[in-house]
Structure formats: C-alpha cells, structure tokens
C-alpha cells in the first residue's frame, strides 16, 4: 500500500486531475466541471463491508452547477450518469491511492438503480464505494465495487459490480 493520506481536499483532487498526485501516466481524476466530488473524507485498501477497500466522498450541490441549466430548462435535474461517473472516478482513485500503476478507465457496471433526483435545492451528495474485489496481477489491475450515492442523507443511486481497470498502455 502506498503512503498516501486517508482524506483529500479539493486542492488534492485538483492535483490528481493534473496528474501530480499519483504521477504521470497513472490514475487521474477529470478536471472541473467533470470532477464530481469536492473532497474524499475516508479511503482504505482493507475497509468496507467486504474488507477489500472503500471510499467515502462528498460533492457540494449549488443551484448554479453547470448541468442544471441544460438538463432540463425549467426542470433542473442532475443527470444520473454524472452520479455514476462520480462512483467510477472514486473507484479508479482508490486503485491509484493503493500505489497501483496505470491510467484508469471504466469497464462497466452490473446493475444501476436510480430512486431519487438531485435538484438545485439539495445541499450535498455523499458517495460510498465498497470494493468486493481488488486484483493486481502481471496482466490485470482492476477493482470491482458496489456503490451508492446519498443526497442529503437519502439514498438516490445504487450500483452493483462497477468495474474499473488500470492500464499502462
């Protein structure tokens, strides 16, 4: 396990987006506006319900976020795919945090349930990523995780079997 802290503020996440946190060619977050979290409050390689690692992160909701204006005019809702992308971002971040090498990319997700909406009056999203598998072999570096997103404490998105891999090519 690499020697990184177990929490990260916005400046740290922006360093990751610029490729400065885990080094060039390794796990990297997108820059705003696609960066879907403001802070990581807890991360591990052996925590969570399965003992395989976890991430908890937060995203502050403001009525002027870019997606509310265009999705949908007069009926602003955060696209559910952005919540899923945030979970994928955090899954890849955890692999880089472990010190594993390569650029991250999403491989898929087994099941997605959207049971609520993020409207401009919400205050905060909390992401929970719980790894069910983390594999690093000579040929494969991959994390498999379940996740959920809460809006002001209400579960609104749930996913099973998210897959993110790292590749050095």
Automatic annotation (TrEMBL):
Gene Ontology terms for molecular function: (3R)-hydroxyacyl-[acyl-carrier-protein] dehydratase activity; isomerase activity
Catalytic activity: a (3R)-hydroxyacyl-[ACP] = a (2E)-enoyl-[ACP] + H2O
Signal peptide range in chain numbering: none
Gene3D superfamilies listed in its UniProt record: Hotdog Thioesterase
InterPro entries assigned to the protein according to its UniProt record, in alphabetical order: FabA (IPR010083), FabA_FabZ (IPR013114), HotDog_dom_sf (IPR029069)
Pathway where it operates: Lipid metabolism; fatty acid biosynthesis
Pfam families: FabA
A GO CC annotation given for this chain: cytoplasm
Localization of this protein: Cytoplasm
Keywords: Cytoplasm, Fatty acid biosynthesis, Fatty acid metabolism, Isomerase, Lipid biosynthesis, Lipid metabolism, Lyase
GO BP terms, alphabetized: fatty acid biosynthetic process
Record-listed E.C. numbers: 4.2.1.59
Subunit structure as annotated in this protein's UniProt entry: Homodimer.
Family: Belongs to the thioester dehydratase family. FabA subfamily.
Name of the protein this chain belongs to: 3-hydroxyacyl-[acyl-carrier-protein] dehydratase FabA
């Amino acid at each position: 396990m690499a020697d990184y802290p177990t929490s990260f503020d916005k400046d740290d996440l922006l360093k990751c987006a610029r490729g400065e946190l885990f080094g060039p060619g390794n796990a990297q977050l997108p820059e705003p506006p696609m960066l879907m979290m403001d802070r990581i409050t807890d991360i591990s390689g052996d925590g969570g319900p399965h003992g395989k690692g976890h991430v908890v992160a937060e995203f502050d909701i403001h009525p002027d976020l870019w997606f509310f204006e265009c999705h949908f005019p007069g009926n602003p809702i955060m696209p559910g795919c952005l919540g899923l992308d945030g979970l994928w971002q955090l899954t890849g971040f955890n692999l880089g945090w472990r010190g594993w090498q390569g650029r991250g990319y999403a491989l898929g997700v087994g099941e997605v349930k959207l049971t609520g909406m993020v409207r401009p009056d919400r205050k905060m999203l909390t992401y929970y990523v719980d790894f069910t598998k983390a594999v690093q072999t000579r040929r494969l570096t991959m994390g498999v995780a379940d996740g959920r997103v809460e809006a002001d404490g209400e579960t609104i998105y749930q996913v099973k079997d998210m897959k993110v891999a790292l590749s050095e090519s």
